[in-house]
Amino acid sequence: DGGITQSPKYLFRKEGQNVTLSCEQNLNHDAMYWYRQDPGQGLRLIYYSQIVNDFQKGDIAEGYSVSREKKESFPLTVTSAQKNPTAFYLCATKGSIGTDTQYFGPGTRLTVL
Amino acid sequence: AQSVTQPDIHITVSEGASLELRCNYSYGATPYLFWYVQSPGQGLQLLLKYFSGDTLVQGIKGFEAEFKRSQSSFNLRKPSVHWSDAAEYFCAVGAPSGSARQLTFGSGTQLTVLP
Q1: Which of residues 2-31 of A touch B (CB under 8 A)?
Q2: Is A107 in contact with B42 (Cβ distance < 8 A)?
Q3: I need a surface site. Which of A2, A56, A86, B30 has the fewest CB within 10 A?
Q4: What is the torsional sign of CA B97, B107, A38, B112?
Q5: What is the pLDDT of residues A12-37, one digit of tens each?
Q6: Which tops the pLDDT comparison, B96 or A43?
């Protein structure tokens, strides 16, 4: 079954702990994205990756890190340096250049206690 | 820099009534435009997109949108709203093909449907 998988759906962590959010896709899409969503602010881009072993900062990259070791996977680590990490995190993918449409996973809600 | 404005934070309509959600964009060239819908706690689902050609675009679930270059708008419409349409709707503008970064989102419009 093709699609984008994000796990876990809900995640609770204590303040000061790093946490890694998973994003996996079997769509064979080249580009992958991480967005953060807060109420009333729409989606803000954290990081994106066009190809394996390459990624770029988005608008709000501070306090986050990513890796792209495989085409199918683009994990996001929320570090202790992120001052307000509680949010809904969305992963998206896009096919090769020319398709121009991003498709979204179901999201992970992170709550820092 | 590209930007998107959705002027209405919250809209309430009765079931069966018509709907129009507004979207204004700022972009230096012909943009790529998208409407997505999000149910609570879920990811975003693509409703429709405009790249070029006919300015009236048909999407899923009976939605349509019209690109008006002179007004920098891409408003979403539906002739008769169903209770299941209650959700949050996001308009997005994209850079041309070749730009991996691509999308800028509006802040969303929350739709409530009254029985």
Answers
A1: 4, 6, 31
A2: yes
A3: A2
A4: negative
A5: 999 889 999 999 999 999 999 999 99
A6: A43
Q: How many residues in chain A?
A: 113
Query: CA torsion sign, A58 to A60 to A62 to A67?
Result: negative
B 24-43: CB under 8 A from A: 32, 34, 36, 41-43
The answer to whether A74 and A91 have CB atoms below 8 angstroms apart is yes
CA distance A92 to A108: 12
B78: nearest Cα among B91, B56, B61: B61
Between the alpha carbon of residue B46 and those of residues A83, A98, B38, B60, the distances in Å are 31, 17, 9, 8
* Tokens coding A4: 């984008």
Chain A hits for B94, CB-CB cut-off 8 Å, are 100
Confirm if B73 and B10 have CB atoms less than 8 A apart. no
The better pLDDT of the pair B14, B96 is held by: B14
Distances (CA, A) of A74 to A81, A101, A111, B56, B102: 20, 18, 21, 36, 18
B62-93 tens-digit pLDDT: 999 999 999 999 999 999 999 999 999 999 99
